[in-house]
Write a structure and sequence with these properties.
46% of the residues lie in helices and 7% in strands. It is globular.
């Protein structure tokens, strides 16, 4: 009887260690990277966004997609263009900026692709 209990205890300890290691794997951040995008935050003003567009389009990122005729020109607003620029900058410099916010849903629309 003592031998059976001993084996049972060892089995339970083994199973608890396996279960604990599985939980650890599931909760460790960045093990399965989720796709993320950086877009204009709700609190960003048009002035802040225009300032960022001017900064980023001055040689930091490729802004041809938000120029007239570009696939991300519409909507032709600081928020629309700012979101595209924030994400393009985020892709290169890994910085979402204080006027941006990280999202987990692809903001692409129509022919405008956020990559």
């Amino acid at each position: 009887m003592a031998k059976i209990i001993s084996h049972l205890c060892c089995t339970l300890i083994f199973l608890s260690l396996v279960a604990a290691s599985q939980c650890e794997r599931l909760t460790v951040p960045n093990q399965i990277p989720a796709p993320t995008w950086c877009v204009a935050s709700d609190s960003a003003t048009d002035e802040q966004l225009q300032g960022f567009i001017d900064f980023a389009c001055n040689g930091k990122i490729d802004c041809r997609f938000i120029q007239p005729g570009g696939s991300c020109y519409d909507p032709n607003t600081p928020r629309g263009h700012g979101s595209y620029c924030l994400d393009a900058y985020y892709r290169i410099y890994k910085d979402c900026n204080q006027i941006g916010t990280i999202i987990y849903k692809d903001p692409s629309y129509g022919d405008c692709l956020y990559i």
